[in-house]
Design brief:
The protein is an alpha/beta fold. Helices cover 37% and strands 18% of the residues. It is built from eight helices and ten strands. It has a seven-stranded parallel beta barrel with strand order 1-2-3-4-5-6-9, surrounded by four helices. A hairpin with a 5-residue loop joins strand 7 and strand 8. It is globular, with a radius of gyration of 17 Å.
Length: 256
């Protein structure tokens, strides 16, 4: 039986900036990439999300990003290597602390936003992220874009790596994500997204923005918690996969 993990970026809410329905999404996905506070979220809100994830058996991953709260961590940044490594280590450590406090465990790391997209192709920052993960806990899995430099660098550094695809984002013909500044970069039609997800899981193929077909080998599929219609897209995708006989399970194993 084919198996796939569904993940979502969560823990990003603060009282004056509510971007997602974490409780609803945690009823659909099997892995949660939880903000570590630099790009979004608050300690109290993050703790609530990891507590809910732990109670529901959803596997928890750290979601560190650039120190860019105003830009939601989505802007590319040129950060000195020592600074970036300390920032990533700090964020992972903070999430481990909050998760441990509620009886849970952080199992993997998925960089957020601008940092994630930078290390798709930037070896220097990819090496910094891999070094930070290894320094905190070398048993943590790195979750990165399928075919990315980040995944190759992390594997070379001795980390376990998992590849990810995106349900609600358009792809360029080279397998990278279309920039959010371009029209059509973010998808919001539940039926369309569900059909794309089923095709991806069954065939390893996805249609790029120019209509060409690209091959994506992924163990996890992401639904952005802050995308319009995110809950509907995730639920429709889970339903169509289940109806097709696909098993939905965490890519890194069940939460202990």
């Amino acid at each position: 039986m084919t198996t796939i993990d569904l993940n979502s970026d969560l823990g990003e809410n603060v009282p004056d900036r509510i971007v997602s329905d974490d409780d609803a999404m945690l009823g659909i996905v099997t892995s949660a990439n939880v903000s570590c506070g630099f790009h979004a979220g608050s300690p109290e809100g993050i703790k609530h999300t990891v507590a809910e994830a732990t109670d529901r058996g959803v596997v928890i991953g750290a979601h560190p990003g650039y120190d860019d709260y105003e830009g939601f961590g989505r802007r590319p940044m040129d950060v000195p290597a020592a600074t970036l490594q300390a920032q990533v280590e700090y964020q992972i450590g903070a999430l481990i602390g909050l998760t441990t406090a509620v009886g849970g465990r952080v199992r993997y790391v998925k960089p957020h936003g601008g940092l994630y997209n930078t290390i798709v192709h930037d070896e220097a920052q990819a090496k910094v992220v891999a070094a930070a993960v290894r320094a905190v806990d070398p048993s943590l899995v790195l979750l990165g874009l399928a075919g990315s430099v980040a995944n190759r660098i992390a594997a070379e550094a001795g980390l376990t790596v998992a590849a990810e695809a995106f349900a609600d984002r358009a792809y360029n013909p080279d397998g990278s994500l279309v920039s959010r500044t371009e029209s059509g970069a973010v998808l919001d039609d539940p039926a369309l997204v569900a059909a794309r997800v089923l095709r991806l899981v069954e065939t390893g193929e996805i249609e790029a923005i120019d209509g060409s077909t690209i091959t994506v080998d992924a163990q996890s599929i992401c639904f952005h918690g802050d995308s319009r219609g995110s809950i509907e897209m995730a639920q429709a995708s889970r339903d169509i996969l289940t109806d097709a006989g696909v098993s939905i399970a965490p890519f890194v194993g069940a939460q202990p």
